[in-house]
């Protein structure tokens, strides 16, 4: 048995590896720190504005005042030597694009692997590997000035505020409230105070881990070249990119499969020289040089990401141009998901009745990502014909097809709508390309 598994002394290799790798901060972080007025070029409206005048709040008519042109601070301005020449009143509360947290550190990953490679014959090689990694101090976003849900709830009823003054509710964390006794409360944001609205830190506090079984086989024999690879893996994190915020009071609330996690992935590639010269018993320019090649892929889908854009948490983690949603999630009841494995029928992909908006003050209890969307079953096939032009040149004619059998591929990281407030919640909303065919000519020299 041992001889069958490991072969002769030169037929098997075992490799073990470990490494710690430090990474640079993503360059995109510099691109999103354009800054807010008066020193920056980006303005985020505190509420939906009028189309004709983007500084007027559509629902209330409040004038948020003109933020531009940009002011340039004195070269010696700093936290200890603030610029006193600016009238800050038109720019408050400051909110919008994130800032880079000064105590951030360098991200790093620890990777480890064990692989066994076995040669079964002169033309067949099989490899089995375990690959794992743990990533720490990854860059992500976290709200620097969250609202106090309990304070907002205490100001949420008409009898809890002065007559004719606004109550507190979703997206109202930066408003001014007046109690029946006349006390003025400048918003429910407490970390940075009322001079700031929703502002985020770009900070290195995210973590991730990955574990995978990887199998591959490579075989060549005569006219056939074949290679297949299969991966069974799981990637987990609490933030898959800087477009996903962390809950400022519970960093693990979004710990779930990564947005890019693929549980099963099988890829087969092949190249076969068609034996027309044997079939027609003639070796000439017409029967030789025909090749059939292709890549076939079978994969499970990406996880469905759940979001809640209604600010039921009363944390006020509004989108800031980097991320599309805050940290809120839906509530989820127990029950069967009833995944729809035939999205062509236009029915929801999962049982949407299990999900609902949370009560005010609650961020929602549904997992950020729980199950996977539609998978992929794709065939790309090419037929090639080469004509020799002397000893060192050849002309190749190519007929290439992608998604050859024209399967509807409802595949992608956002193919299923997981936004609870959307009218398309639970629906499959995107698909890969249909069958594509292209003709080409290649000169090889």
Kindly describe this structure.
There is one protein chain. The chain has two domains: 37-93, no CATH class; 110-139 and 206-444, no CATH class. By secondary structure, the chain is mostly beta strands. The chain has helices at 2-6, 28-31, 149-153, 276-279, and strands at residues 12-22, 99-100, 108-121, 124-143, 176-178, 184-186, 200-221, 224-237, 245-246, 256-257, 264-273, 290-299, 303-305, 331-332, 355-356, 369-372, 376-388, 394-402, 436-444. The two termini are 50 Å apart. The strands form four sheets. Strands 1, 2, 3, 4, 7, 8, 9, 10, 11, 12, 17, 18 and 19 form a 13-stranded mixed beta sheet that branches. Strands 5-6 form a two-stranded antiparallel ribbon. Strands 13-16 form a two-stranded antiparallel sheet. It has four helices and 19 strands. The mean pLDDT is 91. Strand 17 and strand 18 form a beta hairpin.
| Major β-sheet annotation | 13 strands, mixed
C-alpha geometry: elongated
Helix content: under 10%
Q: Mean of residue pLDDT?
A: 91
Strand content: 25-35%
**Rg calc:** 29 Å
Q: Order of helices and strands, N to C? A: HEHEEEHEEEEEEEHEEEEEEEE
Helix count equals 4
What structural class do you assign from the helix and strand content? mainly beta
> Runs with pLDDT <50, length 5+?
none
Number of structural units classed as domains = 2
Number of strands: 19
Oligomer: single chain
Straight-line distance between termini? 50 Å
